[in-house]
Amino acid sequence: MAVIDAEFCPVIVTERPLVDSIGMPYQQLPDGTDPGALRIVRARDVQPGDWYLGDCEQPTPAGEGLFWGGHPYAVYAASPKLSDTGDSLAMDGESFNWDPDELAMILPRHALPA
Q: This protein's superkingdom (predicted)?
């Protein structure tokens, strides 16, 4: 798994809301999960069982190392599947709407509480 170097690009969690702006609840991580285990990886590097937390964008020029992430309603164990053409990826194994080089926020499965 090609993890982006946390020393070079530290992950800073600034907010972890329980609900969105209209009151819809966000699914939360399992109790005992260490948010410090969060990693930013290319979608193609997500492994089955990793918990998908959201996607990332880099609004600053490449190399400045500033990212923002979006936390979706659904936090789930990934079951990634690459399309036959290799140009799209389904993080849930069904919906091929990811570019394999897109950035994703995950908790690696080995970092989840037992």
A: Bacteria
Which token pair is 38?
A: 């969060």
Rounded alpha-carbon distances, angstroms, from residue 88 to 2, 3, 28, 101: 18, 20, 27, 9
Mapped onto helix, strand or coil, the DSSP state of residue 106 is: strand
What count of other Cβ atoms lies within 10 Å of the Cβ of residue 14? 6
The tokens of 81 are what? Answer: 């599947």
- Full pLDDT tens readout for the chain, 114 residues: 555 544 445 566 666 667 766 777 766 777 888 877 888 888 899 999 998 887 776 555 555 555 555 655 567 889 999 999 999 999 888 888 888 988 888 889 988 887
Phi first, then psi: give them for residue 44, nearest 5 degrees: -65, -15
